[in-house]
């Protein structure tokens, strides 16, 4: 295990330790050019935790994370069941579609989404206008924070579903056909088989993917940042990932940004602690 452990310590451990140290320093642009960084103790954390805007971003990020991750998992489970029940052609078509979505470069997909919701030429506004919604010229990214986050959620869910669906489908496919046939002979409906046979068999994978989705959606950056650059109001649409970037790269306040990143790390560990305990329990049982 030594090579793998060393690689993780070098690639992840050192930046994390450096970030933790910087969170107790006043580290700005001057320190980028070699000036010593003075120690400020917990001042960076105090400035974050006493800032009302931080708590707005914090609450907004949690709400966005849980809604997006929840919808992703619900749709992924439904699609996994469809994959399991579908015939050869339908399963192959859906599986290939998921792989194409999964393999599509993120920035390329964001370009397509921006074209779809373009205020003047996008097909979304065109269709809604034809249906009588008076959406001609409406800007989904700057119209309101609600429409901005609706688009952001759709983009993230669309990109996250393939991995979760394929993983859950693979776990469900491991259930012996004899067990499903026996449940059918006992007059169990398809819904009951899914609920009492298939889902419990994939419970560990569903829990794992749920935790990973929460972690990914809590720290989401690229999608939010690109959509902000396309018209979103930054102060009203910042999440924790873009807030860290704004404090560090945009404003040059790396000490406060490091403290903020440490807070996000602690929150991530707190949210994932339940799954970690479950892994240890399963290891002890094995």
Automatic annotation (TrEMBL):
Its main location: membrane. GO terms for cellular component: plasma membrane. It holds the Pfam family BPD_transp_1. It is found in: Cell membrane. Gene3D superfamilies: MetI-like. Signal peptide: none annotated. It comes from the Bacteria. The chain crosses the membrane at residues 54-84, 96-116, 146-172, 193-216, 254-276. Keywords: Cell membrane, Membrane, Transmembrane, Transmembrane helix, Transport. The keyword Transcription regulation does not apply. Residues 58-275 form the ABC transmembrane type-1 domain. GO terms for biological process: transmembrane transport. It is a multi-pass membrane protein. Belongs to the binding-protein-dependent transport system permease family. This is Sugar ABC transporter permease. The lineage of its organism: Bacteria, Bacillati, Actinomycetota, Actinomycetes, Propionibacteriales.
